[in-house]
Design a protein that fits this description.
The protein is mainly α. Helices cover 80% and strands 0% of the residues. It contains five helices and no strands. Helix 1 (2-23) packs antiparallel against helix 3 and helix 3 (32-56) packs antiparallel against helix 4 (64-92). The longest helix is centred in the C-terminal third of the chain and has 29 residues, at 64-92.
Length: 111
């Protein structure tokens, strides 16, 4: 029962991330939904896998922890690299959707 609930939770989080990817308007909005939900969703599915195979094999199965570590490390790094590349491109093209540089925001806040 717990395995089914964890798999369902992971699937729902993946679905929510996919819907967020389709529904949000700009790239900067869209990049967050799949990243956050994928990390949580994959964590739920990995926990379900660990639980299922630990019970089925009558021993502790923890090799999924390695997958979880790679996901926790690579997903935010990928998010940052994609966002910075898009931000650099949008600022070079003078795209109005691009957030202003930090110095410009500080100067505007001081006014």
């Amino acid at each position: 029962m717990a395995v089914a609930l964890l798999v369902l939770l992971g699937a729902m989080l993946g679905l929510i991330g996919s819907i967020g990817l389709l529904r949000l308007r700009s790239f900067y909005d869209r990049v967050h939904a799949p990243t956050l939900s994928t990390t949580l969703g994959i964590g739920s599915i990995l926990a379900a896998s660990m639980l299922f195979f630990s019970v089925a094999q009558s021993r502790l199965v923890i090799h999924e922890i390695l997958i979880a570590i790679f996901m926790v490390i690579t997903t935010p790094v990928t998010l940052m690299l994609l966002t910075r590349a898009a931000l650099h491109r949008d600022r070079a093209e003078a795209n109005p959707e691009a957030p202003p540089p930090l110095q410009a925001r500080k100067a505007e806040a001081e006014r």
